[in-house]
Amino acid sequence: MKPITYGRQYIDEEDIKAVENVLRSDYLTQGPKVREFEERLGGYVGAKYVVAFANGTAALHGAYFAAGLDKEDEIITTPITFAATSNAALYLGAKPVFSDIDLNTGNIDPSKIEEKITQKTKIVVPVHYAGHPVELEKIYEIAKKYDLILIEDACHALGAKYHGEKIGSGKYSDMTIFSFHPVKSITTGEGGAVTTNDKGYYERLVLFRQHGITKNPANFVNASHGPWYHEMQELGYNYRLTDIQSALGISQLKKLDKFVKRRREIVSLYEKLLKDNPYFELPVEKDYAYSSWHLFPVKLKDKYIPYKKEIFEKLRNNNIFLQVHYIPVYRHPYYKSLGYKEGLCPNAEIFYKKEISFPIYYSLTDDEINYFVDMILAIMERLK
């Protein structure tokens, strides 16, 4: 049997043909496909504006810039996330403040956010962990109460819904971030995007993505010198997505609902095969949520936590490669060098000790799932 991993992209002939067509066209980088991808993504999630970026990290950086994050400012976010969520604040000289999670979902706990708010807090950044939406309305109410900007890190959650509303619509936030890394809901190879309904944020996002340069005469500070004239108005970056990547994204977006549907079928099969098992706590889906199931994060029951490394090694010996999502961000050496301490968020620490991400991706077959479940249950049985 071929290797089984926790995640994998799915590319078909339609995707390949879409990329081939761009390679045979006049545009490879900033051509019409970028705009088409942005428009189609906006139409899918229900947002007025979309700005595509080179990757999800660049999209986070751009959103924080657009929100005016600066030195001495603070953001509040979760430690159970990829480091980019907080790193992008550090890029702008701001300070990440970590707030603890709900052990059931792995998402930031709304009831713990207010105690982290200070005079320096500017942005709240909830992460839709594993594709399961956070309690957005509660967090939105907190953000508005303190006049804070709310930016959703939805890098796991394209295709997910909160109370029937697509994540990315902006109903309960100012901006939403997506990632198109190969293990995500759809892929552009590397890629990301920000959705928003605010024209001011949109214009700053576009400026930031292209070196801080504008070619729009309506926005010039100085008088134009001629049709070639442009102005660099901010210290921006080259964070642009290409037409090649955008063509792949357009093709993948057509299959997104099918991708999410299959992930949900896989979850149902796991729930059937692992019902009443003595080893793992299965992830939940709250009644307000429609998860895109980017991950299937199970938690080891207390008795089996000491065997976590052994379980990984035995599975790898059988060509099964799982992952852990995540080491609490503040435990990384760089963050420790900034003064962050272990134990900062007790629930996050417990979650990290217990969590294992089981395989879940569109092309994963029922036979492979059955094989994996049989293998891990046999390993667990021998640990007794």
* Average pLDDT over all residues: 97
The rough form would be described as globular
Order of adjacent strands in the largest pleated sheet: 2-10-9-6-5-3-4
CATH architecture of the largest domain: 3-Layer(aba) Sandwich
- Tell me the radius of gyration: 21 Å
Question: Would you give an account of this structure?
Answer:
35% of the residues lie in helices and 15% in strands. The chain is of the alpha/beta class. It has a 7-stranded mixed beta sheet, with helices on both faces. The two termini are 28 Å apart.
What is shown here, in short?
With about 375 residues, the protein is an alpha/beta fold. Helix content is about 35%, strand content about 15%.
What descriptive keywords fit this protein?
Aspartate Aminotransferase, domain 2; 384 residues; seven-stranded mixed sheet; globular; 2 domains; alpha/beta; 17 strands; three-stranded antiparallel sheet; Aspartate Aminotransferase, domain 1
